Amino acid sequence: MRERWSNPRYVAVDTLNKLAESDEFLKEVVDRQIARATLSRLDQGLYTELVFGTVRMRRNLDYVLAQFSSRPVEKIQPALLNVLRIGVYQLLYLDRIPPSAAVNESVKLARAFGHEGTAKFANGVLRQVLRGRDSIAYPALEKDSVGHVGLKYSFPAWIVEHWLQRWGPEETVSLCRAMNEPPQLHIRVNTLKGSVEEVRTHLEAQGVTVQKGRYLPEVLAVHPAHLVVADAWLAEGRYYIQDESSALAAHALQVQPGQIVYDLCSAPGGKATHLAQLMGNKGEIVAFDVHPQRLALVEENARRLGISIIRPRLGDATGDLQLIPAPRVLVDAPCSGLGTMRHRPDIRWKKTPGEVAELVAVQKAILRRAAQYVAPGGLLLYSTCTLTEWENEEVAQWFLAEHQEFTGQPFLQGFPGWGAQPWLRTLLPHRHGVDGFFLALFRKEEV
Q: Active-site residue among 176, 265, 335, 385?
């Protein structure tokens, strides 16, 4: 039994089974499984590729299985279905795995999670897929764009429909392709503890490939991720793991040393600590979160990064936080998170239009309160890590319509992203090489 936990494919199927039975996010389950299993570093790589890839391409894999299985997909026993999904994923998307190995190992798994009959069924289905994989057909893009994109690139129909209406077929296909690519890991160098060049030299000495960020001098793109995550300099606070899209938010707010800044939805503190860094650790950042455990992460990150100006405070940003107006306010709002799908592929299956509507109501409630906390002449930044117009442009336009004392404030010259207005910016993975992200900047009129 113990030897199964040194088999990356077995652990992958077990992970998918556990994921289906809980409301946890994929990364939480994967981290726990890696801690339990006895996988070599090489096998950990295969394990994570199988799990993340199978979750990402789940709709596509089920569509393919439906074309070759004599049994309807929805009637296949869940554990066996996960075995088949992992097998098909290897056949279609992992060139480095010999097809015979993908089939044979999947048959063994079908036996381990079932019996001889399930093993024979798996063998038959996967060999059919192997023979017919070059002739898999999808609905024509011209006739059924929602079906084509959703099934081929494995996205829920509601997301595809929204993006098609917003950007059209060509842009949507490019976006979906980019969302299915492995993410690049970015780090933000903590310039309070050392220079970018020092961190670059250190990581390269550990065998890490390091490149400059696309937009910010303190951001580096690094590979492979496991060396960076395990390096002692991360624990020492010499750098912080943060996508460059998220790091742009601190620059957008144009903070100055000595200012008071309110971060109304702060946890885990990536943007608050970045703001403190840009302020030279001078001034005061009041960092709110509604969850005590998550607020503790803000405090922990600030301590590790050597930052002393962050004041964590428990508070619900939809309620009255009883704050005197300040020159800078950040609302990094709770959102559907669809811009982060390269890192969190399971999020596409967890969100619904109904949940998005609920989030929009929360976003508006927070912004209503935030408007009261901005001093005349001050700036308010609204940001999300999602790509729905409902949570982004529509909320920003609503805010200006409801709060006549604010105007859209153009971003600094050269600030990246796409926007129909100079005070709106959307970052797209296929265009900007970062996670999907949205920013809207407002200025409160002088009295």
A: 385
Pick from 119, 91, 121: nearest CA to 107: 119
Domain segments of the chain as ranges: 2-135, 145-179, 185-241, 244-444
Report the CATH superfamily, name and number, of domain 185-241.
Sun protein; domain 3 (3.30.70.1170)
Tokens of 334: 């709770």
Can 385 be counted among the known catalytic residues? yes
Give the C-alpha separation, 153 to 171, whole Å. 13
* Sole residue written with tokens 């044979």: 104
> pLDDT tens digits for 216-251?
999 999 999 989 999 999 999 999 999 999 999 999
67: Cα within 13 Å, side-chain hemisphere: 19
For residue 242, give the nearest of 217, 270, 265 by alpha carbon: 270
Pairwise CA distance, residues 420 & 214, whole Å: 22
Any idea which residue has 């950990």 for tokens? 44
CB-based contact 86:13 (threshold 8 Å):
yes
CATH superfamily of 244-444: Vaccinia Virus protein VP39 (3.40.50.150)
